[in-house]
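Handout, section 4.2: multi-component inputs.
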Amino acid sequence: MEVSDVVPSATLGARLERGEEGALADVYTAYAPSVLAYLRRYVGPDEAEDVLQRTFLDVWRSAGRFDSRQRLSSWLFTIAHHRAIDALRARRHVPVDLEVIREVRGEDGRETVEQYADAAEVRAAVAELPDHERLVVELAYFAELTQREIADKLGVPLGTVKARAARGTRRLGEALRAAAEESDQR
Amino acid sequence: MTDERAHPDLLGLLRGELTNLEATETAEHLDDCEECRSELAGIAVGHSMLTSAARRGESSPSQELSLPPVEDLHRAVARRRRRLGLLVAAAVVLVAGIGVAVLRPWADGGAPAVAPQGPTPAQDPSQDPSQDPSPDPSREAVLLAVDGTGSGSVRMTEDHDEVAMRVQTRGLPPAEPGKFYYIWLLDPATNKMLPLGVMGPEGSASFRLPASLLGRYRAVDVSLEKDDGDPGHAVSSVLRGSYA
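Output:
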């Protein structure tokens, strides 16, 4: 597996820019979980799925204007950010937590978008790892299990878990570094 | 040296899974092992990114399960496509209807009283209609309301490789504070859109465009945008009309 295969964003972005069939679905598969998590935080679980759909409809409508020199995740989260603000503005008679408004709209809002875009890049790259490494990395970082707990859960030797976790983590870091360097060169 | 010391658990070290004794032994190993120091640096980058990502986003499988299936998105896109198709079809029918209404008295021998409108270059009414007329460099498209009220027209005049476009709207409600009307070119087949510019306060705007660029789109769209820094098209199109 090439390092570039682990980070799908550059390829996905170029496919989206070309209007390639299936690109939208692939972007959705790779990034919708992270975008949904972001939206839940700001508009709440009841409205998040609606705003997610509005976000991806905007992605579909604006795909022709996406410049693949941009980072796809940042572009996605900027759209999600604006749709979240729209949803909050539309709540004319429902009190909205001031902290939420401050976080999503203020200077911190842009920073938050970038942080979520970073996280989405990582999650999308994890999804591209070989299955045996991906599973261990997900359990270690997103389910917060120790390597021994993972070994017990999967019924494999601890040494195997350590090797897979270390290889997966290193591969992920190399892939994201390579993607960042490639992005800088554009 | 044991095998364990030969290959210390570097990820365990970063994740705080080692005992104090194991951590100390790993540190001693790293003092003397260039290869493991390099390995640690490589793993640390991934570990840092994963730890940061884990702080944001869904962490429990139950939350992941509620992600709407991609088929829902496909259905929403298909609905939007159908809606766009109907709007464009309605605009074409109206434009064609106006063209027929204008051309009909001409076919009966009378000259049209007004400049013809339609999706094709209009003919010069001063010429004999039995002869092949040279194309009028001007053409006009009708803008229809997408939701609500309002209408408008787009007049395009070719000048060599350039097209002067004037958009004139009627009956649109004034934009609320913090909002403005914006004009786009649209290709309904691909939904590709090109931003042209902000509508003036009198409900009109003028642009000069390369003819070749205009030829890559087929319709004009007017949207109501919020002044929120988002360069994308808002969901709220208010007028639309086909010119090709």
